[in-house]
User: Fold this.
Amino acid sequence: MSMRQKKVARLRRARQTRLRISQLRAVRLTVHRSNAHIDAQVIDASGGKIIASASSLDTELREHVGSGGNVKAASLVGKRIAEKAREQGVESVAFDRAGYKYHGRVKALADAAREAGLKF
Assistant:
């Protein structure tokens, strides 16, 4: 499978997930990962406003983690996004993994967010 085919398949999976979440009218926690970093955003039900965001590029997290592309960084981002979401009054979200496999860094971020108090 070529890289282009892999990307198209991932985007197809992401589109299907986002369609289901939009039908639920749920606030969603979306994840973006690259080889070097991981980002998370909490987006309102209409899909037009970012409520909270956290990234391995944030200065407060970079102090604790040398590289942003590992499980430790992902778990710190998950904890931070849950704290920021709860500060904004968001208790429950739908998890949008953006077509990525629920494994490794994506799973670590989700588990850390759950432990910090987000429900999904």
